[in-house]
Design a protein that fits this description.
The complex is a heterodimer of chains A (about 450) and B (about 525). Chain A is an all-alpha fold. Chain A has helices at about 5-15, 15-50, 55-95, 100-125, 130-155, 160-180, 185-210, 230-255, 270-280, 285-310, 315-355, 365-390, 395-415, 425-445, 450-455, and strands at about 260, 265. A two-stranded antiparallel sheet of chain A has the order 1-2. In chain A, a hairpin with a 2-residue loop joins strand 1 (about 260) and strand 2. In chain A, about 50% of the residues are buried. Chain B has about 525 residues and is of the alpha/beta class. Chain B contains 20 helices and 13 strands. Chain B has helices spanning about 40-50, 105-120, 130-135, 145-150, 155-165, 170-195, 210-220, 235-245, 260-280, 290-300, 315-325, 345-360, 375-385, 400-405, 425-430, 445-450, 455-460, 470-485, 485-505, 505-520; strands spanning about 25-30, 60-65, 80-90, 200-205, 225-230, 285-290, 305-310, 335, 365-370, 395-400, 410-415, 435-440, 465. In chain B, helix 6 (about 170-195) packs across helix 7 (about 210-220). The longest helix of chain B has 24 residues, at about 170-195. The relative contact order of chain B is 0.10. Classes of the chains: A mainly alpha (about 450), B alpha/beta (about 525). At the A-B interface, helix 10, helix 11 and helix 15 of A face helix 5 and helix 6 of B.
Chain lengths: ~450, ~525
C-alpha cells in the first residue's frame, strides 16, 4: 500500500484546480472519515428507527449507550493507544517487522482482559435492572470497541488511512444494516446490530494487519516490558481522551443539564446534540491538516534530519529548519483559515439546516460556540502531531494536561455561571491548550538545531 | 626467569590483581599506553628508571585507550611502585545528567580567547594568559564544566560560530562530533587530576594526554613536571592521523557538498600540537633522547633553555660476556629485535632476507619479538615468508632474553620506519654486534657517532651501516658487506663496543636522572 503522502503529492502535482480540490477532498474523507461515519451512523440508526422502535426513549437509550461505550473505551485505552503505536513505529524503524503482529495480539489480549473485567463489573454491579442481553452486549461492545481503537490508531500510525476509511465504511454499513434489521428487538436489537458492525470492523482491520505483516509468533508482550513504551506517551494518550470527554461527562452528570436514560447512564440532550453536529464541521480543517502534515511537513522534516545526519553544512541545516518551520506555520494558519470559513458557513446556514432537520433553534448559540471549539481541536491535533514528529513528548504532555485540566475546570465554571456560558468551558480549554502548545512549539522550533545536537 | 631482566619478566595474564594504592609518593609517573601494560622500548626504560631509584617511591597513572586493548600486567611491579591507577580514555563514560542551560558567560569568553591561541599560537601570544585561566577553571569546582560544553546554549553558539568562522569542511555533523570526541578525554583527565594522590614531582614520559595530565597537575599542585620524550608524540600522532580511516569522509553524500576529511585531520593535529605546547610550557626540564629530537622539541615550541638530551643507557656489563662466547667466525645470522608491528616494517626485513639468501644460502633471519599486538600483521609477515620461499631461512622466535641469543647473531637489523633510540641496537653493541639500521631516530648517531664539539662522537668509528627506509636491496647489501668481510665486521664491532661504553651506559643515564629528580624533589612548591 503506497503512503498517503505519495498519493496526495501525486494529486497536488497535477497543478490544476481540480487536482487540488480532489487532493483536499480525498484528505478530508480520509482524515475525518471514521469520526464522521460513527456520528452519522448512530444518527442514521436513530432517525430510521423513529417509527419502528416505540417508544422513542428506546432509541435514545441505544444512542446514549453507544456514546458511553465509545467515550469510556477511548478513555480506558487512551494510554495504550499512543504508547503502543509509538512502540510499533520504533520496532518497524528497527526493522523488527515480524514483531508487529505478536505484540499487537499481546496488546489486544491485555486490552480484552482489562476492558472485559471493567465492563463485566459495571454490567453486574450498576445495571441491576437492565436485561441480560443488554448487559452482555455492553460487555461485548466495550471490549470490541477498545480493541477497535488500538488497531485503528495503530493503522493510522502506520499511515494506512485509506484502508481505515474503507473498513470503517464497511463496519458502519454492517452496523446500520444490522441495527435496522434487528429494530423489532428494541434497544437490544439496535445495540446488537451496532456491536456486530464493530466486530466486522475489528475483524477486517485485523485481517489487513495479519496479511500485511509476517509474524514470527502468535503472541508477545515485549511492548509491556519495562522501558518499551514511553510513560509520557501513556499519560498523554490518557489525558487527551480525558480532555476530549471531560466537558461532556460533566454535562451528563450535572443535575440541571441532564436526564437519566438507562441505569446509571445519563445524557444531556441540550449539550450533546450541538457538539456532535459541530464535529461534522471539522472535515475541511482535518483535510488541510492531513495534506500539510503528509506532504510539505513530512518532506522537510525528512530533509532536515537528512541534512543533520548525512553531513550537510550548518547553513543548509538551518535552511531546512526554516523551511520546516515555514510549513508548520503555513499548516496551522491554513487550518485556522479554513476553519474560520467553516465557522462562517455554519453561522450563516445553521438556522436553516436545523429547521430542516427538525432540531430546535435553542441549540443555535451552543452550536456556534462548539463549531469554534472543534476548530481549535483540529489546531490542537496539528500542534500535537508536530510535537510527536519532533519527539517533544514533555511539551505534548504539558499541552494535553492543560487541555484536560482546563476543560474540567472551565466546564465546571460554565455550569455554575449558567446556560449562556455553556460550551465556553470546552472552547476556552482548547484555546488555552492551543496557545500554550503553539508558544512552546515556537520555542522548540527556534532551538531545533541546538536541541537536536546538544540535547539528544 | 628472573624479574631483573631488562625487558622485564613475562607475567601470566593477571587481570583482577589488586593494584597497589598509597596516600602519597615521591614521583608521580604519568604513562600513556606503555609500562606496565605494554611491552616495548619505552616500557623497558620506565622499568629501568624505577629500579634504578629504589630509595624513591613511585605512583603511576596509566592512561590507555580501552581496557580490552590491554592484557594484564606485562611487568612485575618493583616494590617501590606504591601506587598504580589505570584510566581508559576512550571507554564510554556515562555522560553528565542532561539538561538545557545557558552556560557560564565568562567561562566561554575565556574559552574563545584560549582557542584563538590554540589555532595560531604565534599570532595570539597575548592570549596565553587566557590559556592559563582556562586550565585553572578545569577542575571539580571550576567555571568550566563538561555539562556546559555538551548541553549549554553558549556551548552551542560557540561551536556553531567556530564552524562558520573556521571549518572548511561542509559537514557540520562531523565537525560537531569531532569536537566532542576530541574534548571527551580532556574532561576525563580533569577528573583524574582531581583525584590523583599528592606527589613531590610529576614525571611524564610523553606529551599528549599524559603530558596534559601533567600540565593540569603541575598547575594545581605547584610541584615540578619533568617531561621525558622518547619519540616525538605529536609527530607520531600525525603519522597515525594520516593513516586513520576513521576520520569522517563524506563524498558528496549530501547536496554535492563533498568532504575529504582533511579539515578534521588538521583539527586533530592542531589538538595534539596544542596539548604538546601546553606540556612544553609547563615542564622543566624537557628531556629528549638525542640531539635531533631536542632540536625538534625546540622547533615545536619548547623553550631551548629547558631542553636537554639524555640518551638511553644499558647495563653494558651484562652483555659484555657474550662477546667471548661468540667464536672467531662471524655468525651468518641477521636478527631483527622488535614487536611484529607495521611501524617496524618487518616485511622489508623479510624481503631483504630473500636477497641475502640468494647470495648466502646458509644465512638465517631471526625475528625476535612478540606477535600478539597486531596479529593480522603477523599473519601477513608469515605468509610473505612462505611466498618468498624463506621457510628455511626466516624464523619467528617470539619473545627472547637478549643474553640467550646475541652471541649467535652476526648483525642486528632495524628496518623501522620510525624509531627513537632503540635499545635493541645498544644491546647488540654491548655484545659486540654491529647494526644495519634505517635512517630513523638516533640510528645515524648510534652508527656513526654524534656531531660533537670535541669530535669524540665520530672518532670512535663506524659501528654498522645506515640505509634508507623500505629499501630491502640496500639493507641486504649492507648486511652482506659486513657478514662477508671479517675485517670490516671486526672494526664495526669494536666501534660499537667503544660507543656504547662511552656514551650509552646505564650509569650515565641514571646519574643524569638522579640530578633531575634531586632538583625536582628539592624544589619549593610555587
Amino acid at each position: 500500500m503506497a503512503g498517503i503522502g505519495f498519493e496526495l503529492r501525486k494529486l497536488l502535482r497535477t497543478q490544476t484546480y481540480s487536482g487540488l480540490l480532489r487532493a483536499y477532498a480525498y484528505a478530508g474523507i480520509i482524515s475525518s472519515g471514521p469520526w464522521v461515519l460513527s456520528i452519522i451512523g448512530i444518527q442514521v440508526v436513530g432517525v430510521l428507527s423513529l417509527s419502528v422502535v416505540v417508544p422513542d426513549v428506546l432509541i435514545t437509550r441505544f444512542q446514549v449507550t453507544v456514546t458511553y461505550l465509545i467515550a469510556c473505551s477511548l478513555i480506558a485505552t487512551g494510554a495504550l493507544q499512543l504508547g503502543f503505536t509509538r512502540y510499533l513505529a520504533d520496532q518497524l524503524f528497527l526493522g523488527n517487522e515480524r514483531r508487529v503482529v505478536p505484540n499487537l495480539n499481546g496488546s489486544l489480549l491485555v486490552t480484552m482482559l482489562g476492558s472485559g473485567a471493567l465492563a463485566l463489573a459495571a454490567a453486574l454491579l450498576v445495571f441491576p435492572e437492565a436485561s441480560n442481553l443488554y448487559r452482555a452486549l455492553l460487555v461485548c461492545g466495550f471490549v470490541v470497541l477498545s480493541c477497535v481503537w488500538i488497531v485503528t490508531i495503530m493503522l493510522s500510525g502506520l499511515k494506512q488511512y485509506k484502508a481505515i476509511v474503507v473498513i470503517y465504511a464497511l463496519g458502519y454499513g454492517v452496523a446500520v444494516g444490522g441495527a435496522l434489521a434487528l429494530r423489532p428487538l428494541g434497544t437490544e436489537g439496535l445495540l446488537l446490530g451496532f456491536v456486530g458492525g464493530q466486530f466486522v470492523l475489528l475483524a477486517a482491520m485485523l485481517a489487513l494487519v495479519y496479511r500485511s505483516y509476517p509474524a514470527d509468533g502468535f503472541v508477545a508482550f515485549d511492548f509491556a516490558q519495562r522501558g518499551a513504551m514511553y510513560p509520557s506517551l501513556l499519560l498523554i494518550g490518557l489525558l487527551y481522551n480525558v480532555g476530549v470527554w471531560a466537558d461532556k461527562l460533566l454535562f451528563w452528570y450535572f443535575p440541571s443539564t441532564s436526564e437519566a436514560i438507562i441505569g446509571p447512564l445519563r445524557a444531556s440532550p441540550i449539550y450533546d446534540t450541538p457538539i456532535f453536529l459541530a464535529y461534522l464541521a471539522i472535515i475541511p480543517g482535518m483535510a488541510v491538516f492531513l495534506v500539510r502534515m503528509e506532504t510539505d511537513f513530512a518532506e522537510y522534516y525528512q530533509r532536515f534530519y537528512d541534512a543533520v545526519r548525512s553531513g550537510g553544512s550548518l547553513g543548509h541545516i538551518e535552511r531546512m529548519r526554516d523551511e520546516l518551520v515555514f510549513t508548520v506555520r503555513q499548516g496551522l494558519f491554513e487550518i485556522i483559515k479554513i476553519q474560520t470559513l467553516a465557522v462562517l458557513v455554519v453561522f450563516e446556514t445553521a438556522a436553516v439546516v436545523l429547521r430542516w432537520l427538525g432540531i430546535s433553534d435553542i441549540y443555535l448559540p451552543l452550536l456556534f460556540v462548539d463549531v469554534v471549539a472543534v476548530g481549535l481541536q483540529v489546531l490542537l491535533l496539528g500542534v500535537l502531531n508536530v510535537l510527536f514528529y519532533l519527539d517533544k513528548r514533555a511539551v505534548a504532555l504539558e499541552v494535553t494536561a492543560i487541555f484536560a485540566g482546563c476543560n474540567l475546570l472551565f466546564t465546571a465554571a460554565s455550569l455554575a455561571l449558567g446556560a449562556s456560558w455553556y460550551g465556553y468551558g470546552f472552547a476556552l480549554a482548547l484555546l488555552a491548550a492551543v496557545v500554550w502548545g503553539a508558544w512552546r512549539l515556537n520555542g522548540k522550533l527556534n532551538a531545533l538545531e541546538y536541541e537536536t545536537f546538544m540535547l539528544q | 626467569m628472573k624479574p631483573t631482566e631488562d625487558r622485564g619478566a613475562r607475567l601470566p595474564e593477571s587481570r583482577g590483581v589488586k593494584l597497589p594504592r598509597a596516600e602519597r609518593a615521591d614521583i608521580g609517573l604519568l604513562l600513556e599506553g606503555t609500562f606496565p601494560y605494554v611491552y616495548g622500548g619505552v616500557s623497558s626504560w620506565v622499568y629501568q628508571i624505577i629500579r634504578a631509584f629504589p630509595e624513591l617511591t613511585f605512583a603511576i597513572a596509566f592512561l590507555g585507550s580501552r581496557a580490552e586493548d590491554y592484557g594484564g600486567l606485562k611487568y612485575e611491579l618493583p616494590p617501590n611502585v606504591v601506587h598504580l591507577e589505570t584510566h581508559f580514555l576512550h571507554e564510554k563514560q556515562p555522560p553528565p545528567v542532561l539538561h538545557a542551560r545557558d552556560g557560564d558567560a565568562q567561562a566561554f569568553a575565556t574559552i574563545e580567547r584560549a582557542h584563538r591561541y590554540f589555532r595560531t599560537p604565534h599570532a595570539h601570544r597575548a592570549d596565553i594568559a587566557q590559556v592559563g585561566e582556562l586550565l585553572g577553571e578545569l577542575s571539580a569546582g571550576g567555571r568550566l564544566s563538561e555539562s556546559d560544553q555538551l548541553y549549554s546554549r553558549r556551548g552551542w553558539r560557540f561551536i556553531t560560530e567556530s564552524y562558520r568562522a573556521f571549518c572548511s569542511d561542509p559537514s557540520f555533523v562531523d565537525y560537531f562530533w569531532t569536537v566532542r570526541t576530541m574534548h571527551a578525554p580532556i574532561w576525563r583527565l580533569t577528573r583524574i587530576a582531581d583525584t590523583f594522590i599528592p606527589v613531590r614531582a610529576y614525571h611524564s614520559v610523553s606529551t599528549g594526554y599524559a603530558g596534559f595530565l601533567g600540565t593540569l597537575l603541575r598547575r594545581r599542585s605547584g610541584r615540578p613536571l619533568i617531561l621525558s620524550e622518547h619519540g616525538i608524540y605529536t609527530k607520531e600522532r600525525k603519522i597515525d592521523l594520516f593513516q586513520a580511516q576513521w576520520i569522517a569522509e563524506h563524498h558528496g553524500a549530501f547536496g554535492g557538498e563533498a568532504s575529504d576529511g582533511s579539515y578534521f585531520r588538521q583539527m586533530w593535529i592542531r589538538f595534539f600540537e596544542a596539548l604538546g605546547q601546553l606540556c612544553y610550557d609547563a615542564a622543566d626540564p624537557i628531556v629528549a633522547l638525542f640531539e635531533a629530537n631536542r632540536q625538534r622539541q625546540i622547533a615545536d615550541g619548547a623553550a631551548a633553555e629547558r631542553t636537554r638530551s639524555i640518551p638511553n643507557g644499558i647495563d653494558v656489563a651484562r652483555y659484555a660476556p657474550l662477546r667471548a662466547r661468540r667464536g672467531q667466525a662471524v655468525p651468518p645470522v641477521l636478527c631483527l629485535i622488535g614487536r611484529v608491528v607495521p611501524i617496524k616494517d618487518i616485511k622489508t626485513f623479510i624481503r631483504a632476507m630473500r636477497v641475502v639468501a640468494n647470495r648466502m644460502p646458509q644465512a638465517q633471519g631471526w625475528i625476535v619479538g612478540p606477535e600478539d599486538e597486531d596479529a593480522a600483521y603477523g599473519a601477513e609477515c608469515r605468509s610473505l615468508v612462505q611466498g618468498l620461499d624463506l621457510g628455511g631461512q626466516v624464523r619467528f622466535l617470539g619473545f627472547r632474553q637478549m643474553q640467550d641469543i646475541l652471541h649467535q647473531v652476526g648483525v642486528v637489523v632495524l628496518s623501522s620506519i620510525s624509531e627513537a633510540l632503540p635499545l635493541a641496537v645498544l644491546e647488540g653493541f654491548a655484545a659486540g654486534v654491529p647494526a644495519v639500521c634505517t635512517d630513523v631516530g638516533s640510528c645515524r648517531e648510534l652508527v656513526y657517532g654524534a656531531e660533537r664539539a670535541d669530535g669524540a662522537g665520530r672518532a670512535l668509528g663506524v659501528a654498522g651501516r645506515i640505509v634508507g627506509i623500505a629499501d630491502p636491496q640496500a639493507l641486504a647489501a649492507a648486511a652482506l658487506e659486513l657478514l662477508n668481510d671479517s675485517a670490516q665486521w671486526q672494526a664495526a664491532s669494536a666501534a660499537a663496543i667503544r660507543r656504547v661504553e662511552r656514551f650509552y651506559t646505564q650509569q650515565r643515564m641514571v646519574a643524569a636522572y638522579r640530578d633531575i629528580y634531586q632538583a625536582a624533589l628539592a624544589a619549593n612548591g610555587d
